[in-house]
Amino acid sequence: MKDVTSSLRHRITTSPAAVPVTRLVLDTNVWLDWLLFEDPEVTPVKAAVAAGRAEVFVDDAVESELVRVLAYPFGIKTLDIEKQAELLAQCRRIARKSEGENRKAEVNLLPKCEDPDDQKFLELALACGAAYLVTRDRALLELAWHKARPLPYRIVTPAQLGAALKNCDG
Questions:
Q1: Can you give the pLDDT of all 170 residues of the chain as single tens digits?
Q2: CA dihedral defined by 35, 40, 45, 46, rounded to 10 degrees?
Q3: Other C-beta atoms within 10 Å of 96: how many?
Q4: Is the dihedral of CA 39, 48, 167, 120 positive or negative?
Q5: Distance between CA atoms of residues 165 and 147, nearest Å
Q6: What is the CATH number of the domain that holds 158?
Q7: Which of 12, 33, 38, 140 has the smallest C-beta neighbourhood within 10 Å, fewest atoms?
């Protein structure tokens, strides 16, 4: 956990009020945990964003996947079109849009994810200068220990990020 905390302190930007701001990328399942399932492991992340200590980034590829996934059946939480639009609007209010202008040349240096659909999250985290890519996806988490091509950001679960945020507060 010490590495995660030191990474949080290292990969920050400064807001106009000189408050450290941690840049985050959430994969689609973590967005669902935030927007739809209200997972308690995401609560510290929500609190950090609400307090201005963290900011979440999306791009067109991530947003498109979220639109597609929000239309999936979720049992009793299956969403009608209005609820899908409401959750997408909430995501857009929470997240900053990354245009990917930064570091495009470095994308080829990223490791390739076992699941090609997850590569977009690695690329977005690089493009926006994220400190963390937050996921529960096994294929992405395995890349957290990639030794041949170390990443310029950490890949963590929501619980790991919550602990890191708590450690930085105290």
A1: 334 333 443 444 444 555 679 999 999 999 999 999 989 999 999 999 999 999 999 999 999 999 999 999 988 778 999 999 999 999 999 999 987 665 566 777 788 888 889 999 999 999 999 999 999 999 999 888 766 667 889 999 999 999 998 877 65
A2: 50
A3: 12
A4: positive
A5: 25
A6: 3.40.50.1010
A7: 38
Note the maximum CA span of the chain. 45
- Please report, for residues 31, 42, 80, the alpha-carbon distance to residue 85 in angstroms, rounded to integers and kept in the order given: 14, 21, 9
Distance from the first to the final alpha carbon of the chain: 14
Q: Tell me the CB-side half-sphere exposure of residue 169, using CA atoms within 13 A.
A: 13
Query: In the chain, how many domains are there?
Result: 1
Crossing angle of helices 119-127 and 60-70, in 10° steps, is 140
Strand (E) positions, the chain? 12-14, 20-26, 54-58, 95-97, 132-134, 154-156
Residues 32 and 150: beta-carbon distance below 8 Å:
no
Q: Which domain holds residue 92?
A: 2-169
Q: What is the pTM of this model?
A: 0.84
